[in-house]
Design brief:
The complex is a heterodimer of chains A (194) and B (415).
Chain A: H1 3-24, H2 28-48, H3 52-77, H4 89-112, H5 133-141, H6 153-158, H7 163-184
Helix pairs in contact in A: 1-2, 2-3
Chain B: H1 2-13, H2 25-61, H3 78-88, H4 99-115, H5 137-145, H6 148-158, H7 162-193, H8 198-203, H9 218-234, H10 246-249, H11 259-283, H12 294-297, H13 306-335, H14 343-371, E1 375-376, E2 381-382, H15 385-389, H16 401-405, H17 411-414
Antiparallel strand pairs in B: 1-2
Classes of the chains: A mainly alpha (194), B mainly alpha (415).
């Protein structure tokens, strides 16, 4: 066993163990804490795979997002001093069935995609940084540098940049945000009669 | 580094007839340990110096002397004496506390603060002094530094004390808000250099101080001050230290902490101060390129051989650390000069001043960069040839970014 598989097992083990801890814990803040550890271990897996842009994204969005979740969890649900949750056995059964089905689908897919089969590719060299963000940025502008060796010219042209879909998605998100702000805005009641 | 260590070990092993492959686990573990030891040494030693500096500077500002006795002159060993005192204190855990989270919280803060240093380079060029050379270093540092608040929130919650929870909630609101303008400010140098690689960003500013992004145009000059304000706020220093606010909340989130655990929070705070300052130094103040390129003038460059280049990098490292210390000193100066803001004033500063200012400066810098490309020092000087030629090379392709920019490769062909 080489060292990268050792680190992979370590990171994935952490992710798995803390994910189970989230399920088994009753205390809402501890749940959020275990969730953060699990997500951080997943970020470690991304870094291990050489996808440092995705790894940093995972840290920024998921781990940072869970932080906000934690704050809201404390602020909105704290009736007693330490919030704990009880789940009924019916909920447990439904969750087990749903989770098991999802696990089955994921494992089935992971085993059957030919590109994901184990290979003997050399691992990434350590001293020169892998360019992860630059190709993505260039692809947004319309230069797919990862597709330069694509022999089929029409396919090369077909896979032009992501800028257009990206702009559509961001405008969509903006509309959603404006809508949410509109719905959640404080309605001013002029009750200054007193 | 790991490969070099493995080769050295292989050479040693050859004396007894053994051999070691280039990618053996041993070299990687050793390299990681060396990096961690160096970074830990930097953070811990600088925390010692900063605490002493804080006492001396605050003393001078308040017309006192500050510590004078421990260690002879200037009380320079005062922090060590404080550290000894903290070690002997009893490690208290409140009876109602969530004990596991209470014990873990200081370590989480400290780990997040230390992890930011992994991607911070201390010298560049051919052999950068950096623990892990990341292509997205700026992004990584910002993402990791945002996690420090996690330990603070856990500490505030687990203490089972109202003061602690108030402090933690304030800190959460503050740090989450200030990440927005800080991110906007950081984007400006990233845009000018065209890369998120901190080593590349520093090298792009090589030469005289006229090449620093601080003086690139009036917008970047203002952005630096907005960044510095947000940096001070994001590490919870006065005038933004609402999470502690001694006059209102006893000691805020660390009210219930004592002894070594308390000192871990302080190490984390001083570590993040240094990280924010070094990031500012690399993004805006030329990083390892001093105001006068002494290393270049003395011929300590990589073109003249590896030994001289290494010495030049060493000078660069001193430069980075000196700039970081200078900015931390400014933070200390600000702390003992300005009164603490109220929570609504903190939010107003962030949302009504810093964020719009950063956004407008971003647009301004973008327009400046497109109308006056390859000009530095407020557009007065031509950028040096060597800086303009510096572009990121894409891996495994004979094509680089500059070739596309110059139109040598047409857009349709590249797709």
């Amino acid at each position: 066993m080489n060292w990268s598989s050792l680190l992979f097992l370590l990171c994935s083990g952490f992710a798995g163990v803390f994910a189970i801890a989230v399920v088994l814990s009753n205390n809402i803040v501890r749940m959020a804490f275990y969730l953060v550890l699990s997500l951080a271990a997943t970020a470690g897996l991304f870094f291990l795979a050489g996808a440092d842009f995705v790894g940093a994204m995972q840290l920024m969005i998921y781990v940072g997002g869970t932080l906000v979740l934690l704050v809201f969890g404390v602020m909105l649900t704290a009736q007693s001093q330490f919030v704990s949750m009880r789940t009924s056995s019916g909920e447990l059964l439904t969750a087990l069935m749903l989770g098991g089905a999802l696990l089955f689908v994921l494992v089935f897919t992971a085993m059957n995609v030919p590109m994901w089969q184990p290979t003997n590719q050399p691992s990434v060299s350590e001293d020169t940084p892998v360019l992860t963000a630059t190709p993505i940025g260039m692809a947004l502008e319309g230069y797919r540098v990862d597709q330069l060796e694509q022999p089929n010219p029409s396919l090369r042209r077909g896979m032009s940049g992501y800028l257009f879909p990206f702009v559509i998605v961001s405008v969509h998100l903006l509309v959603v945000l404006v809508g949410a702000a509109y719905l959640a805005r404080a309605r001013r009641h002029h009750t200054e009669s007193a | 580094m790991a490969k070099l260590l493995n080769q050295c070990l292989d050479w040693i092993a050859s004396w007894v007839g053994g051999s070691l492959p280039d990618d053996s686990l041993l070299g990687y573990v050793l390299a990681a340990l060396i990096y961690v030891a160096l970074l830990l040494g930097l953070v811990a030693t600088s925390a010692l110096i900063f605490i002493w500096l804080e006492r001396k500077v605050s003393g001078r500002i308040q017309d006192r002397l500050g510590p004078t006795r421990v260690g002879g002159k200037f009380g320079w060993l005062q922090t060590l004496a404080d550290g000894m005192k903290l070690l002997t204190k009893e490690d208290l855990v409140p009876g109602d506390a969530d004990k596991m989270l209470f014990r873990l919280a200081p370590y989480i803060s400290f780990c997040a603060s230390l992890a930011a240093f992994i991607a911070l380079p201390f010298a560049g060029r051919d052999f950068p002094f950096v623990a892990q050379h990341l292509n997205i270093a700026v992004f990584f540092v910002l993402a990791v530094m945002g996690l420090e608040v996690f330990g603070v929130i856990l500490a505030g919650y687990a203490s089972a004390s109202k003061w602690s929870l108030f402090g933690a909630m304030r800190e959460a609101a503050q740090v989450v808000s200030y990440e927005v303008p800080m991110g906007l400010c950081v984007v400006v140098p990233v845009m000018l250099a065209g890369s998120m690689d901190l080593v590349f960003l520093g090298d792009k500013q090589q030469g005289w101080f006229t090449n620093w992004y601080l003086f690139h145009d009036p917008f970047t000059f203002l952005v630096f001050w907005v960044y510095f304000t947000c940096g001070v706020a994001s590490v919870n220093r006065a005038p933004f230290d609402l999470a502690e606010a001694e006059s209102e909340l006893v000691a805020g989130f660390h009210t219930e902490y004592s002894g070594l655990r308390w000192s871990f929070f302080f190490m984390a705070e001083y570590g993040s101060m240094l990280a924010v300052s070094i990031l500012a130094a690399i993004l805006f103040l030329g990083g390892w390129n001093g105001p006068i390129p002494i290393a270049g003038l003395l011929g300590l460059t990589w073109e003249n051989g590896p030994v001289l280049g290494y010495l030049g990098n060493f000078l660069g490292m001193i430069n980075v650390i000196a700039k970081g210390f200078l900015l931390v000193t400014v933070m200390i100066w600000v702390r003992w000069t300005l009164p603490r803001l109220r929570i609504d004033q903190v939010m107003t500063t962030c949302l009504k001043y810093c964020t719009p200012l950063a956004a407008v400066m971003f647009v301004g810098a973008a327009l400046w960069h497109t109308t006056l490309p390859d000009r530095v020092f407020l557009g007065l000087l031509q950028a040096p040839e060597v800086n303009r030629r510096l572009t990121e090379r894409l891996p495994d392709h004979s094509l680089d970014v500059q070739a596309i920019e110059q139109g040598t490769i047409a857009q349709g062909d590249a797709l």
